[in-house]
Amino acid sequence: MNNKLTQRPAIFINVKESEVEAINPHLVVLISSSPGANSYLDIGSFCYTRRSEIPPPPRTACPVDPSSLDHSRIPFTKALIAYIKGLKTRSTAHSVYVGVKAFIGWIDSQPDNYPFNDTACMIKAYREYTTYLYHRINTSSINGQPIKLGTAGNLQAQARLAVTLATDLSEPEIKTSATFIKKNRKESNQINLKLPSEDSQAKTFAALINFIEEAHRILVGGGKLPLQFKSPTDTPYYMYSLVGTTRSTKKAPFSPASLLVCSPEFPSWKETQRHFNLSGDSNSLRIERSIYDKAHQRYEYNNENLRSDLRRRIGNHAIVAGMMAFMAATGCNLSVAKNLESDTLKIVPSTQGQRYSGTKGRAFGKPVFPEFGAQFSPIFRKHLEIREWVLNGKESDLVFPVASYELEPTIVCSGSIQVFKTLFTKALPKTTWVPSPYWRKNVGYQYLKLSGGDLALTAEKLSNNESTVKSNYGRPSLDDFAAEMTLFLESVHQAAIERTRFSDKISVKFIEEKRPEAVIGVGSCEKAPDSIPERAPGFTLLSPAPTCRDPENCLFCAYYALHADEEDIRRLLSLHYLIKSSKVDNSLEHWESKFGPTLHRIDEIITAIEDAGKASGELIDTIRQEIKQGALDSFWAIHFDALVIAGVIL
């Protein structure tokens, strides 16, 4: 393979040359200058799936295999070049380059192909890369090259950046697709138990953005209904009206509303008949046909009349959604957001790096200028266009005006927010509604975390004093710590499980008769004498390796079987109790990596026993309680006593 690597021509561009555009991104090498030396960032080599891993001499491009040029990476590379050129410091640019290079290097080392223009493939790559990073965190220094939690968190963040640049997804949307690796364990103290989790807030934010974009398509673009309301955790909800389904429509023998909310296109009469199992001639179905025709007429009317009452109400809801998203992006108060006035009505760069402003408000008698990041600016532009549609030629200084019944611009009231909340929770029942104060609290926590607990900086960003920040946004308490520890334990446990499995559910073999010679410590072994243990289908190479010397590892063997009588259940639950009791003073990650998959497998087998009707839940609970009181299976009781004598179990 190395024989095919050749030196390609290079185009050297200084990162400070903002006016220079990368016409051929696959040839670009960025130069990051400093008083001491120059750094050469060969961004263009990322377009090739095969390239040299040896750093080239200065002012020389990395050798590549020209035939491995992946055209799907060219737009991504161009976006990455623009992003790095926009960074302020040389160290940051170099850090981004190294992190993205590690992610792309991992992609190129995989047997699967990940086209950069395929959003689903990029999300899959991000998930599997996260699993790989967790594996590196828990790898022994003897068997591999372990990395620290902070390093893994930085690498995951740069992978998120790469996926953001390659797709149209925002960072919160990408963040929710895999377990988030926290860079600092001390971050756990900054989470408030009363607040929705960061993951929940990200999903809610994504749902708000989706509503704004759909409203923009329908109102500003003159698109057709339905409005597709969706979030990462809910199935799409198609809005042909703001009423949707109600209790009466759900109970009614025939109501198109229940069909419309799950139909991306208005169903035909024949499709409606099939859905409701309607049969008969037109005379016997005249009432149903009349109801259907009226619903279809309303649909046609709302598509033809571009300023229908339905569209105007969607516009008001979009203004409320825009205001909630604005608070999430800026951290401003609800009172400030409702009364916010336009300053320039343009999205102009502010003094805070790549942040933007065009609004002004007042908080406690002093002017404030809420700012948002560059990524939010396209959404805010769409909001401004929706705002113009809602105003329909009327004058208003409000950034978030809604139209009254008299079609006059007015301030967003609590009733407007409540109506939108009702619609939101009805359409997306699995997505948490985040009240307006919590958006600001979340931003406050983020400032505290990112600044390392700098109260002065956080107070300046939130336009508060330090005592207010300390009392309202710091809140170091046992409940906060417990909430974060719960999330951390769950993420570590889940990561340990995901590394050992190809599928979420792996079957268990049940046998009708138990042979005494085949009985083992956790059930029965159906292996022939001349066979060797092997992993059951569904387990990865990172799962415990089956061996006849370790009965607990038999749970992962292809020859493992279960009679599922009381003795087998007691043995399984005894092993579970033994493992849970033997936590020694090791790191949590190490313990979960070693024992988490076994505990999960036992839970899976117990669930399979109950689902198959081999034993009732009452019997299983009874045996579990007896074990807690000391009635362990005799096989595992010997091990338990030995661990007590050794001091492992206190």
Topology at a glance:
Elements: E1 11-14, E2 28-33, E3 38-41, H1 74-85, H2 90-109, H3 119-138, H4 149-166, H5 171-175, H6 198-219, E4 227-231, E5 234-239, H7 247-251, H8 256-260, H9 269-276, H10 286-304, H11 309-330, H12 334-338, E6 341-342, E7 348-349, E8 355-357, E9 359-363, E10 366-368, E11 372-373, H13 377-391, E12 402-403, E13 409-410, H14 414-427, H15 436-450, H16 455-462, H17 466-474, H18 478-499, E14 509-510, E15 519-520, E16 523-525, E17 560-562, H19 566-581, H20 588-611, H21 617-628, H22 634-646
Parallel strand pairs: 1-2, 14-17
Antiparallel strand pairs: 2-3, 4-5, 6-9, 7-8, 8-11, 9-10, 12-13, 15-16, 16-17
Written account of the structure:
It is globular, with a radius of gyration of 30 Å. Helix 3 packs across helix 18, helix 18 crosses helix 20 (588-611) and helix 19 runs parallel beside helix 22 (634-646). The two termini are 58 Å apart. The protein has a four-stranded mixed sheet. Strands 1-2-3 form a three-stranded mixed sheet, with helices on one face. Strands 6-9-10 form a three-stranded antiparallel sheet. It is built from 22 helices and 17 strands. Helix content is 48%, strand content 9%. Among the domains are: 2-190, no CATH class; 223-304, no CATH class; 509-646, no CATH class. It is α+β, with helices and mostly antiparallel strands and 650 residues long.
